[in-house]
Write a structure and sequence with these properties.
heterodimer; A: 279 residues; mainly alpha; MetI-like fold; 2 domains; globular; B: 331 residues; alpha+beta; Rossmann fold; OB fold (Dihydrolipoamide Acetyltransferase, E2P); six-stranded mixed beta sheet; 25% helix; binds adenosine-5'-triphosphate; binds magnesium ion; ABC transporter ATP-binding protein (chain B); nucleotide-binding (chain B); ATP binding (chain B); AAA+_ATPase (chain B)
């Protein structure tokens, strides 16, 4: 294996493939960013050109900041994402710990039941969810979104985390028990720090779909004061005219926080992906 | 007073019986070693004593009190694990003091006990390091220190030295022996290692398939094994078993001869061909093929010069031999 890795030709091929993939993945982001700084005419004339002196404009950003309550949308998105992620991680980790650590009747069945959600897309249940939200009076609140996203994220979180929790040494947990730590302390103080890379992985996998989601905000919380960023950006897309400057600017700004969160998690994420490999 | 007494302890995982009717007492201050082949239930027995695993039936008393329903932390025990099991995010000092903090002991008492334990184990210089910044031997000493600060009535060690290299093993073994003398506490120690068992134990408990095969002092077990299993398991190289009829005895019986009691003599009763020689410097192990698929090991003191395929004859002292019947019981 190490021989293959050290071979310069192989290493070149691997890097070429990775760089190609990176370029392809980053290209749309690049186009959005570049065009958000161009005039409308320039966007259509030559979508791939960089902004120049005569095509440069900040009109899109001005529109976005003026029209619509951009900061409110931003705040809504942030609250929904952060609270959902927190709940997914907290409850997912707790369920995973219980499944991995305790022997009880129906342990396996419970695990399968929780994992079922991975295979069934939550959007299938949209109508039922909407009915539930209406009858519980949660429509047009951020809680509606938070609850749905938490439910959506839990199956994968439980699945991934329970696998990692099984790898945490039994001796360590037992040492804690003998030292008189409660099960909660063992969970929070011993096990959670050790599965942090896995938690970061789950966080990243959940964060992006939640942040980008248009479906549930549109159905469950379309009111002005609960609009999320993705939904808020839609005001610039009309049936007949679309304010491309504004749309692109809004999207550019929407990318930023995700990027920041991603950078925070990514160090952990890399450790998470490779953690099984070198031990 | 008895430090620990087990009465009819059984443990099963589902259908599988792992411990079968264990009866055992450990006197105060005694050093008891559990030995037995892999999978015979040594660790499980230790975990049942510590309360990490609940016994399916039977009584467990520690210092005269029944502890069947007492959680591990309140049993007055401390355990040292094979994998050290140190808390990776805490410093050595915090690792050692955690249990005392949980018991809400006063700060100065905690500090004093940690200082004392770290002095005993020469850990004073490492108190502010994390486990990842320590060597294997130091980690194991921290694990032992974590047990010592709790001042338990009963120490439980589960193969504490098996992750250490040979030299470190010997040092740590001496350290554990010294600790036992200093603290005078009762200790139960699980090991695979013959030398650890023989040198540390006041009392050895030989286990097989979840049953106690024999309990006794190391020399009792070595000289008077109750059955063929114990005779074969204790002692290295292990005892030779020669069908008795080859030596003029009764059909079906076996004669057990320890390797060191069989010496090379020109007209010995056992004749064969050398198939392998292990020269250890201090002594020499000679493996001899006696025919009929019977391999015999002789341990000769000093450096004995022989080579493979040489014809050789051995003899032994009849009074040092043990006889076993066909079922493996001593006669
Ligand atoms: N949690 C468990 N569930 C089911 N079976 C178990 C469990 N723990 C142990 N066993 C079984 O109990 C038997 C005894 O295991 P134990 O760990 O006590 O052996 P051991 O004597 O300590 O072996 P070793 O010397 O290899 O450490 C084994 O056959 C094992 O498969
Ligand atoms: Mg074991």
């Amino acid at each position: 294996m190490s021989k293959a890795r050290n071979n310069p030709l192989n290493s070149f091929a691997a890097h070429a493939a990775l760089i190609t993939y990176t370029l392809i993945a980053l290209f749309p982001v690049f186009v959005i960013l570049v065009n958000s700084f161009k005039t409308r005419k320039a966007i259509f004339r030559d979508p791939l050109a960089l902004p120049e002196a005569d095509t440069f404009t900040l009109i899109g950003y001005q529109t976005v900041l003026k029209q619509g309550d951009f900061f409110l949308y931003f705040q809504n998105s942030m609250i929904v994402t952060v609270v959902s992620l927190t709940l997914v991680l907290l409850f997912g980790a707790m369920a995973a710990f219980a499944l991995a650590e305790y022997k009880f009747k129906g342990n396996l069945l419970m695990g399968l039941y929780l994992a079922l959600g991975i295979m069934i897309p939550i959007r299938i249940g949209t109508v039922a969810i909407l009915e539930m939200m209406v009858s519980s009076g949660l429509v047009n609140t951020l809680w509606a979104l938070i609850l749905v996203y938490t439910a959506q994220g839990l199956p994968l979180a439980v699945f991934i985390l329970s696998e990692f929790m099984r790898q945490v040494s039994d001796d360590l947990k037992n040492a804690g028990r003998i030292d008189g730590l409660s099960e909660y302390t063992i969970f929070f103080r011993l096990v959670l720090p050790l599965v942090r890379p896995a938690m970061a992985t789950v966080a990243v996998f959940n964060m992006i779909p939640i942040w980008n989601d248009l479906w549930f905000p549109l159905i469950l919380a379309p009111a002005e004061e609960t609009k999320t960023l993705t939904l808020g950006s839609q005001v610039f897309i009309g049936q007949f005219v679309t304010d491309w400057n504004a749309v692109l600017s809004a999207l550019s700004m929407a990318i930023l926080p995700v990027m920041i969160l991603y950078v925070i998690f990514s160090r952990q994420l890399i450790r998470g992906i490779t953690s099984g490999a070198v031990k | 007073m008895t430090a620990l007494s087990l009465t009819n302890v059984c443990k099963s995982f589902g259908q599988v019986e792992v411990l079968k009717d264990i009866n055992l007492t450990v006197e105060e201050g005694e050093f008891v070693v559990f030995v037995g082949p892999s999978g015979c239930g040594k660790s499980t027995l230790l975990r049942v004593i510590s309360g990490l695993e609940e016994a399916t039936s039977g009584d467990i008393e520690i210092s005269g009190n029944s502890v069947n329903d007492v959680p591990p932390a309140k049993r007055g025990i401390a355990m040292v694990f094979q994998s050290y099991a140190l808390y990776p995010h805490l410093t050595v000092r915090d690792n050692m003091s955690l249990a005392l903090k949980q018991e809400r002991k006063p700060k100065d008492e905690i500090a004093a006990r940690v200082a004392e334990a770290s002095r005993m184990l020469s850990l004073s210089d490492y108190l502010d390091r994390r486990p990842s910044e320590l060597s294997g031997g130091q980690r194991q000493r921290v694990a032992i220190g974590r047990a010592v600060v709790r001042e338990p009535d009963l120490f439980l060690f589960d193969e504490p030295l098996s992750n250490l290299d040979a030299a470190l093993r010997m040092n740590t073994r001496l350290e554990i022996a010294r600790l036992h003398r200093q603290l005078g506490a009762s200790m139960i120690y699980v090991t695979h290692d013959q030398i650890e068992a023989m040198t540390l134990a006041d009392k050895i408990v030989v286990l097989r398939d979840g049953r106690v095969e024999q309990v006794g002092s190391p020399m009792e077990i070595y000289n008077h094994p109750a059955n063929r299993f114990v005779a074969e398991f204790i002692g290295s190289p292990s005892m030779n078993f020669v069908p008795a009829e080859r030596l003029g005895g009764q059909n079906g019986q076996f004669v057990g001869i320890r390797p060191e009691y069989a010496q090379v003599t020109p007209n010995g009763r056992l004749k064969g061909k050398v198939i392998h020689v292990e020269k250890l410097g201090g002594d020499t192990n000679i493996l001899i093929d006696l025919g009929d698929d019977l391999t015999f090991t002789s341990r000769v003191f000093g450096q004995y010069d022989t080579h493979v395929d040489q014809e050789i004859a051995l003899d032994f002292d009849d009074t040092k031999c043990l006889s076993f019947d066909a079922e493996g019981q001593r006669i």
